[in-house]
UniProtKB/TrEMBL annotation, chain A:
SUPFAM superfamilies found in the cross-reference section: P-loop containing nucleoside triphosphate hydrolases
Signal peptide positions on this chain: none
Gene Ontology MF term list: ATP binding
Source organism superkingdom: Bacteria
InterPro entries assigned: AAA+_ATPase (IPR003593), ABC_transporter-like_ATP-bd (IPR003439), ABC_transporter-like_CS (IPR017871), P-loop_NTPase (IPR027417)
Protein name: ATP-binding cassette domain-containing protein
Domain ABC transporter: 54-301
Pfam families recorded: ABC_tran
UniProt KW keywords: ATP-binding, Nucleotide-binding
Keyword Membrane belongs to the record: no
SMART domains xref list: AAA (SM00382)
Automatic annotation (TrEMBL), chain B:
Name of the protein this chain belongs to: Alpha-D-ribose 1-methylphosphonate 5-phosphate C-P-lyase PhnJ
Naturally occurring in which organism (per UniProt): Brevibacterium daeguense
InterPro entries tied to this protein: PhnJ
Length: 306, 295
């Protein structure tokens, strides 16, 4: 694949998508930079599907499982843009489709419909390059459980971070080491622990290592799945602060999903509320959490306050 | 080419049967076919039908099958074990090869047409009309970091050696040096990762760009690999962490060499890692003797 031509194609594509009315000169002068990540109509269901699936699920049927054929409509028609340095928060209860949505964005599961344009890479859902290769360079996920993240427990923490640099061809030990150690330190891991085997780290510390590993080759898109679930509250706040500082500096487009409103309130610049696989509300956190419009969001906010 | 003698025709001339050189002609052809494939893809591991040999697997049965599939009555064979022609294992393999094939034996590097070796490369430079056969215990260079063979094969197919680089990084970060002493992994032609067999780093640095072919045989794992003449072979190292040859504390007590690969005698094996505390001497006995006779 030729990265330059793909980048140009993607730039042209997103410019066209976001400026249908503007002429070429106006576009050059007035338009904000295109979003790093632009998702449109993402859908995924599990099951055979029938003509009634969409009609009978969601708010209408108060379920994501089609009563006619049993298919689970896990994600339906989800669209959003995320810009450089922006954090999109997605909140919803367990089973609402958050993990499925992230797995579509991470190219772990094929989407039934929709597109996912990443600046410089085009529509990743239609790319012919191998998924693994794109994922490594463009879209990186921090998993809820660091055991699921492909980390090597017996290797040093810094080795787990450096792996991403080695994978992309860094052949200078000094450079790989400096970049890995700097990022670990920035994320609050004391230098005396950088060479300790990862298996000696606590959950919160391992999560920081996973984050450093995700960011050491700054990705276009960073996906965080329930980044603080299972950590104790003081560790949570600390980790969230680190996440915020580093994502600000690197300018990746970040998508964070959580069932925890507080996490989303702290991290997100914009919020989507997802319910039965559909977006039921979106806006800035203050607006969504202080003046929820959809009954489900109202319920979420009320249960949080209780 | 049509009147060029084949191993079989030469054997017939010398009154030898089909089952010449211990193996039947079919088995030898199978090994040679694997070797041709191996020469076509330098450094790549090619499976072959490894036979039971009169030496235990892991004691040179792979190297022996390679040698026997090539040797003819006009050849001269040298067998060394860690540089030494006179070890029990080397002498018995040498006599097995010469008795079953009628070839000549030698301990003099220059005289040999085929040199079978365990864990050393002769220090006297080999010529293009000589062949080096190395005995390989573990042909898979990723075995320490990728335990599943199928997964290792995928890494080779994609030329993705990140696990090996990661292992190297972890050693450097935690121990300040690679832990791998002998059997240091090498990149062949810049693309294929290969185990050079447990030769010292001194020899790893002399593997590439040679006028002769190097054939590697692993009997237990039933694989061969090959380096055709003038193949590029580089150790897997970071740009800022070059591989250094082992250093010896003293010159050879016999020939006085200061740039040969020397080991301390008195150990159980002539490996630097397991050496004793006796005097230092050349591991390559023939090279040492040559220097003494012809200073
Ligand atoms: N592989 C699958 N096969 C069948 N149903 C699935 C599969 N993965 C998820 N689902 C269903 O899709 C819905 C959304 O699940 P998920 O995305 O894990 O939600 P969340 O992460 O918000 O808890 C659930 O009803 C779940 O049972
Ligand atoms: Mg989930
Ligand atoms: Zn000597």
């Amino acid at each position: 694949m030729n990265p330059t031509s793909t980048a140009q194609a993607a730039a042209a594509q997103s410019a066209a998508a976001h400026a249908p009315a503007a002429g070429p000169t106006a576009a050059a002068q007035v338009l904000p930079p295109p979003p790093l990540l632009s998702a449109r109509g993402l859908s995924r269901r599990f099951g055979p599907g029938c003509d009634l699936c969409i009609e009978l699920t969601g708010d209408a049927g108060a379920t994501s499982r089609c009563p006619a054929c049993g298919t689970v409509v896990a994600v339906h028609d989800v669209s959003f843009d995320v810009g450089a340095g922006e954090v999109l928060g997605i909140v919803g209860e367990s089973g609402s489709g958050k993990t499925t949505l992230l797995s579509l964005l991470h190219l772990d599961t094929p989407a039934d419909a929709g597109s996912m344009v990443v600046d410089g890479y085009g529509d990743l859902l239609r790319s012919r390059t191998s998924d693994a290769e794109l994922r490594r360079s463009a879209v990186v996920m921090v998993h809820q459980n660091s055991l699921a993240a492909g980390l090597a427990p017996r290797l040093a923490a810094e080795s787990n971070v450096a792996e991403r640099l080695l994978r992309t061809g860094c052949r200078s030990f000094a450079e790989a080491r400096a970049r890995s150690q700097d990022l670990l330190a920035e994320l609050g891991i004391h230098p005396s622990r950088h060479t300790d085997p990862l298996e000696t780290f606590s959950g919160g510390m391992a999560q920081r290592v996973q984050l450093a590993r995700a960011l050491v080759n700054p990705p276009r898109v960073l996906l965080l799945d329930e980044p603080t679930t299972g950590l104790d509250p003081s560790v949570q706040a600390d980790l969230l602060e680190s996440v915020q500082r580093v994502t600000d500096r690197l300018g990746s487009a970040t998508v964070v999903v959580s069932h925890d409103l507080e996490v989303i309130r702290i991290l997100a610049d914009r919020v989507l509320v997802i319910h039965f696989g559909r977006v039921v509300e979106d806006g800035i956190p203050e607006q969504v959490f202080d003046d929820p419009q959809h009954p489900y969001t109202q319920l979420l906010v009320a249960s949080r306050l209780r | 080419m049509s009147d060029a003698p084949t191993v079989a025709s030469l054997a017939a001339e010398h009154g030898q049967s089909e089952a010449y050189a211990y193996l039947d002609e079919r088995t030898k052809r199978n090994v040679r076919r694997a070797l041709l494939k191996a020469l076509a893809i330098p450094g790549w591991q090619i499976p072959f039908d490894s036979r039971e040999m009169p030496v235990a697997r892991g004691w040179g049965s792979g190297g022996l099958q390679v040698t026997l599939s090539l040797v003819g009555p006009t050849d001269t064979v040298k067998v060394i074990d860690q540089g030494d022609d006179s070890s029990a294992n080397a002498s018995s393999m040498r006599s097995l090869i010469s008795r079953t094939s009628g070839c000549a034996e030698t301990t003099v590097t220059e005289e040999a047409t085929i040199i079978q070796s365990r864990h050393r490369i002769p220090e006297i430079p080999l010529r293009g009309d000589q062949v080096l056969v190395l005995q390989v215990p573990h042909p898979e260079p990723l075995r320490r970091v990728v335990t599943n063979d199928a997964v290792a094969l995928e890494h080779h197919a994609e030329r993705d050696y990140t696990p090996a680089w990661l292992d190297l990084y972890d050693d450097e970060a935690r121990h300040g040096a690679p832990r791998t002493g002998a059997d240091y992994p090498v990149l062949v032609e810049g693309t294929t990762l290969m185990s050079p067999s447990p030769i010292p780093r001194y020899d790893v640095l002399r593997l590439g760009n040679r006028p002769h072919a190097t054939l590697l045989g692993a009997g237990r794992r039933a694989r061969v690999a090959a380096l055709p003449p003038f193949t590029s072979v580089e150790p897997l190292v970071f740009d800022d962490r070059p591989l250094l040859a082992e250093s010896a504390a003293e010159p050879c007590i016999r020939c006085g060499s200061i740039d040969s690969y020397r080991v301390q005698s008195g150990g159980r094996y002539q490996l630097a890692a397991e050496a004793g505390n006796g005097p230092w001497c050349c591991s390559d006995v023939d090279a040492c003797r040559t220097r003494r006779n012809d200073p």
